[in-house]
Protein: Co/Zn/Cd efflux system component
Organism: Sphingosinicella microcystinivorans
Amino acid sequence: MDSTCCTSSCETVQSQANPAWRRILWIALAANTLMFLIEIAAGAVSGSRSLQADALDFLGDAANYAISLGVTGMALAWRARTAMIKGFTIFTFALGVLISAIWGLFAGGQPEPWMMSGIGALALFVNVTVARMLYRFRSGDANMRSVWICSRNDAINNLLVIAAGFAVLLTGSGLPDIIAAFIIAFLGLQGGLEVIKQARRELSGAGTAT
């Protein structure tokens, strides 16, 4: 992507300067911070690895939304560099989730299924609401796309937590909770790499244009 004001980059700059974009980011930041606090507490009380994994994901997303607010309106190269940092942040949090899931395999235990599913449903409502607001910005630059990927993956994660809660209830085993945590980790790793790759392409295009 060129760093000069070609049609696609002009559209992205206009979207970045859109007050609606900033307003949605502030809403997403507040919602993700609140859900991190709720899920980390619920995960500790219920003993659910998938809830704790999703809470870490909420924390990483809150940081990413804050970063996105800080670079709104900046030149493409700076937004791409910031997206690169966000991609690595997503990837790092996913690694933490993966380590937690592996530890859960050895630690064992059975989480409280009703709390898992209930908190998962609340988180799903929050994430679907944010994702719907962000949907029209999904095809922007790496910075905007990373925000969309965060919201999309979060909604999928919440469905996994809800399903895992019911599976734990039906089977009497904590294994579904661990499996959900592994899937959440995989989605985070994949999403982080996707953002990093797009940011590298944009940085390369900005470099050739200067």
About this structure: The chain has one domain: 13-209. Residues 9 and 161 are 38 Å apart (CA to CA). The longest helix spans residues 175-209. Confidence is low (pLDDT under 50) at residues 1-16.
